């Protein structure tokens, strides 16, 4: 990707995404890896073969800078650090997720079925609970606490490079991007992706306004110089400014579609999700598998909750906890043209 900086795509299992990009930065003291991949034998084998091509091995990795706590970024870093003593850093906003994983409440019960019920997706919630009960034993060795928590915006020295660590909550509360201004590069994790948008609302524990957080974080990245985007998924993108602008426009368009869907009356988030198009190919919600139906319902809920925060929509829970949304009188609608090219949304775009 640049002098002393290498991209290593690692495989993902049964996932809508083919690979997660791990970036290796060479220093005189060894390697720093941005993200670690999913703790799978196949991913580790690819990592070892790839490092060998630059004359290194996993024992040469001194440090992991993990953009966020999702398993395709964190778990292999955690596993390898336990073996080699490499130093791991993670955003402190993701500490509640690790706290939950290490508590007696996990993995006994996921919070997502409850969220799906408030969204009105009861059948999907039941299927998600069945899936959770069938999962293999939870390996805490893949979820060890990091050696250091990243807090606020600050600078990191990585060999001869100076990286701006920028807190970008939204996809997860503790997400970070790393900007190398001198080289004109943005190691963007899942925050800025070149052809898709990250999932919003699929985070543990559940947060109040994930979409509001995400869009505010996009605006903060827009304030950086225009940088070449080195994402965690997909190809390199030439302009962080252009991609951020497209993502913001895309979500404004989705917000307008949600508001328009409410014109027929008071409905649940699942009702709205059922009439929206999904993915870059405009699939119907009914055609999605149960996992992606759940992702779509939670992302729609995130959009509706932001409309509530903007005072364009009212939300009313019923006695069972299902939230109904209704557009306020006088709220403007309309979203202009279809969302920006390549700015696909939701359910299968990027999961945990």
Automatic annotation (TrEMBL):
Pfam family, one: Lactamase_B
Region (Disordered), start-end ranges: 328-352
InterPro entries documented for this protein: Metallo-B-lactamas (IPR001279), RibonucZ/Hydroxyglut_hydro (IPR036866), Sec-metab_biosynth-thioest (IPR050662), WH-like_DNA-bd_sf (IPR036388)
Protein origin, superkingdom: Bacteria
Listed Gene3D superfamilies: Ribonuclease Z/Hydroxyacylglutathione hydrolase-like, Winged helix-like DNA-binding domain superfamily/Winged helix DNA-binding domain
SMART domains, per database record: Lactamase_B
Composition bias type Gly residues, residue spans: 332-345
Residue ranges occupied by any Metallo-beta-lactamase domain in the UniProt entry: 19-233
Protein name as it appears in the record: MBL fold metallo-hydrolase
